[in-house]
Amino acid sequence: PAHSNTFHKGRLTWAGEAPCTVRKTDYAFEMASSNIRYGEGVTREIGMDLQNISAQNVCVMTDRNLSFLPPMKAVLESLAKNGVKYKVYDNVRVEPTDSSFKDAISFAKSGSFDVFVAVGGGSVIDTCKAANLYACHPEADFLDFVNAPIGKGKPVIKALKPLIAVPTTAGTGSETTGVAIFDYEPLKAKTGIASRALRPTLGMVDPLHTLSMPERVAANSGFDVLCHALESYTALPYNQRSPCPPNPINRPAYQGSNPISDVWSLHALRVVSKYMKRAVRDPEDLEARSSMHLASVFAGIGFGNAGVHLCHGMSYPIAGNVKTHKAGGYSVDHPLVPHGLSVVLTSPAVFNFTAPMCPERHLEAAEILGTWASGFVKVKDAGPLLADTLRQFLFDLHVEDGLTAVGYKKDDIPSLVKGTIPQERVTKLSPREHTEEDLSRLFEASMKLY
Ligand SMILES: NC(=O)c1ccc[n+]([C@@H]2O[C@H](COP(=O)([O-])OP(=O)(O)OC[C@H]3O[C@@H](n4cnc5c(N)ncnc54)[C@H](O)[C@@H]3O)[C@@H](O)[C@H]2O)c1
Ligand SMILES: [Fe+2]
């Protein structure tokens, strides 16, 4: 059955009664986002911001590649101009792991920093969030805050230091979210830490930084925006998610689709549809690259509160089990299936599978992405229509032909399924319930796309 108009169900409780004692599913949702400042060249203000909060000792994090590029130069110039004292950590790993997080955490712990600045894509921003979190909780064990069931998923109670995020990709939206993702090497699958407390204080979104992105980084980070928008818009509605939290501190950051996230996610999808191909193909197209930078913020606010589901849940073992695949355009010395690519490769199969639960949302998405879905299109065709639309979109942007093209064979499917099972935090937000056999079939259907 369609579920997309079920937000305004009748009240299930009487006034004064604690709702979660009488119902299993949640009845409320909460919107959280960082402050966002957007503008061409706005990075020049960061030194003043740090002065305004009387920063004494700033930790600036980035990755080795970016440490030589214009975004870092702009940040350090502004810090120098405003007499801000800082130390640089440029050892962030592209697609971080538990050990790379721990290295950054020990740098943060040893420096007694009072403010953090992250200059980079999701890898840098996420690493910086974790470094700030554990530097403020020196007694905590690393797994304490990591999502259950891999970690203990403890709520963050202490306030963290201010963190200013300067995103250089148009992708993760990490500047808006309370999420930090890493590859947990013992399980060969990604997991993360999710708490509103991790949100950056300010996301400084300067579109000039996107101009230096190589073509494949622009493509893959753009696919991340696409999937954030699509998955959050089609996620299980917040009032069908269980359990109902007994205390608001237990309400997860990813709550399920909700009327406010819908606005952000749909708008992000429209921007992706209009500008993504231009942004990938022409690195000098400032209008397109700026629009995609904003789209990553819009989608970040949408999915940061609604969550993502199967494409992301299944992407974590795709990234974690990588064997030898080299990501073209990425200056890294390790095998890598970049996040956006690992997410989008299963998208045709996933949305074909989820469409029966909310077909009109899937049809709407196909239409936004340019497929004419006339009034004659049957509800049952929503899945195939969106899947075909996505396949064409990926083909036009020269995406690898499915999981086989990034090094996977049918024999790998059981380990890919095994790595998806612990990703409940997101897979439970799938609008359609699924078994391990369903997951196997989705991986199998994603082996080749075209
Ligand atoms: N926290 C969240 O909410 C969230 C959401 C989605 C993804 N993620 C995580 O973020 C990571 C991926 O981040 P990403 O896609 O932003 O890429 P990234 O940070 O991994 O960077 C990819 C590559 O692009 C380079 N690069 C970045 N910006 C550049 C620029 N402006 N010019 C030239 N080169 C540039 C980097 O040096 C790196 O080599 C993954 O670990 C993923 O799991 C986090
Ligand atoms: Fe993502």
TrEMBL record:
InterPro entries on file: ADH_Fe/GldA, ADH_Fe_C, Alcohol_dehydrogenase_Fe, HOT
Location, primary (coarse class): mitochondrion
Keyword Cell membrane recorded: no
Catalysed reactions, semicolon-separated: 4-hydroxybutanoate + 2-oxoglutarate = (R)-2-hydroxyglutarate + succinate semialdehyde; (S)-3-hydroxybutanoate + 2-oxoglutarate = (R)-2-hydroxyglutarate + acetoacetate
Gene Ontology CC: one annotated term: mitochondrion
EC number(s) per entry: 1.1.99.24
One Pfam family this sequence matches: ADH_Fe_C
The keyword Chloroplast is annotated on this UniProt entry: no
SUPFAM superfamilies: Dehydroquinate synthase-like
Cellular compartments annotated: Mitochondrion
Family: Belongs to the iron-containing alcohol dehydrogenase family. Hydroxyacid-oxoacid transhydrogenase subfamily.
Record protein name field: Hydroxyacid-oxoacid transhydrogenase, mitochondrial
Annotated source species: Gouania willdenowi (Blunt-snouted clingfish)
